[in-house]
Amino acid sequence: MNIIIAGCGKVGKTIAMRLCEEGHQVTVIDIDENALQAVKSSLDVMGYHGDCTSIKVLEEAGIRHTDLLITVTSDDEKNMLTCLVARKVGGCQTIARVRSPQYAEDIKYIKDDLGLSMSINPEKVAADEMIRLIQIPSALEVETFAKGRVNLISFAVAEGSMLDGLRLKNLHSKIGMNALICVAARGDYVVIPDGEYEIKAGDRLWVTLSLADINTFFNKVGIKTKTIKDVLIAGGGTMTYYLAKKLISLKINVKIIEINPKRADELSEKLPKAMIICGDATDKSLLTEEALDEMDAVCSLMNEDEENILLSLFAHKNSSAKIMTRIHRDSYEELVSELPVGQTIATKKLTSDYIVRYIRAMQNSLGSEVETLYRLVDGRVEALEFNIGSGFIGSGKSLKDLPLISGTLICCIYRGGKIIRPGGNDCLEAGDSVVLVTTHKGINSLDEIIRR
């Protein structure tokens, strides 16, 4: 596809990189010459300098021959206006980043008037990700499919776990549950495991489960589960607002530390049920005074990566809380993976995954549609959900008779409100939702997993 991205900041650059990896023809526009050159020098893209709301600039960038425009500048109004102009001039599909809580709530009423195919709010997407992790505190990562009915959950195998030394083919008889381990990572080694895979302590595993089975599974494999009741959030930005609002609706106690007095006052008005403290979240005495050690979860969401990392390290040392750390810089992501800072939250990656998922759906053929897409293990594995259309070549055939490409596993079938753990005698039928994991990138159609 021919795709134009307006805005070459961190999010725009990450999206451009992902789309280039997917094989799309990408053009970028930015009013900042330095930002534009930084993207052009590192990626195989075309670049145009100028204001993306200008019809002239859009036409120079090829808007009349573009399939999709993505606007991710720092200005919500500019993003929406650019989409409106592009829709009128080029007739292409459009995606706008809209971050303001006010616009995010009202966008559904003006989406059609603006000609928007989709709007995305990175801060809200990140907040939703953190909510899932808080609701399932024993998990390292939670991805959802079938509109939240199926979960792909990552966890670490502890020393002394009943899973240590167990072969996957014996898992069902050992725990007596409808769970399927579909990805395993051991150091730098990542595999879609078969029944002969022997689990070892230290492995990171991904398992598909229904929401109702999660706590039972963790209890059976010896992982303690704890309901989160008290959450400390450092930083009072937009992401904090979305996160706190949802936590409060779930009857969870929220404490927010914000250093800017004006912003602290604003949060007090917008979130009257949260406790707002004006202070420095990296001040050890303040953290002690506010009972950091009694918190069930600590979310470091400040503007500076260094502050977030320091707070998370301090929380790890002085509490048993579940920790989440926001990271902005690409250069820090590899560093923090070696540090005990809990789950890292990077809005640019979440946003790029969200947009790539939408583009995959745009490209589908034969009635199969990518509903959901997640990248696991630093992008080395993709987890996808497809709706089975009437044209799928594998419909009605037993899974044992389907020659799947290597590095691919069908890990869940959702049919008529029922979650099916796939076995060799199960079949895929039109109307099913199917979840698969694969080490192959860029799969757009379910037919592509069948070896010809």
Describe the structure.
The chain has helices at 10-21, 33-42, 55-60, 76-90, 101-114, 122-135, 171-175, 214-220, 238-249, 261-270, 284-289, 305-318, 330-336, 347-362; strands spanning 2-6, 25-30, 46-49, 68-71, 93-97, 118-120, 141-145, 150-156, 180-186, 189-191, 204-210, 230-234, 253-258, 275-278, 297-300, 322-326, 343-345, 369-376, 381-387, 408-415, 418-420, 433-438. With 452 residues, it is α/β, with parallel strands linked by helices. Strands 3-2-1-4-5-6 form a six-stranded parallel β-sheet, sandwiched between helices. Helix 6 packs parallel to helix 9 (238-249) and helix 6 crosses helix 14 (347-362). The longest helix has 16 residues, at 347-362. The radius of gyration is 23 Å and the shape is globular. The two termini are 26 Å apart.
Describe this protein with a few key phrases.
452 residues; alpha/beta; six-stranded parallel β-sheet; 14 helices; 25% strand
Strand and helix map with partners:
Elements: E1 2-6, H1 10-21, E2 25-30, H2 33-42, E3 46-49, H3 55-60, E4 68-71, H4 76-90, E5 93-97, H5 101-114, E6 118-120, H6 122-135, E7 141-145, E8 150-156, H7 171-175, E9 180-186, E10 189-191, E11 204-210, H8 214-220, E12 230-234, H9 238-249, E13 253-258, H10 261-270, E14 275-278, H11 284-289, E15 297-300, H12 305-318, E16 322-326, H13 330-336, E17 343-345, H14 347-362, E18 369-376, E19 381-387, E20 408-415, E21 418-420, E22 433-438
Helix pairs in contact: 1-14, 6-9, 6-14
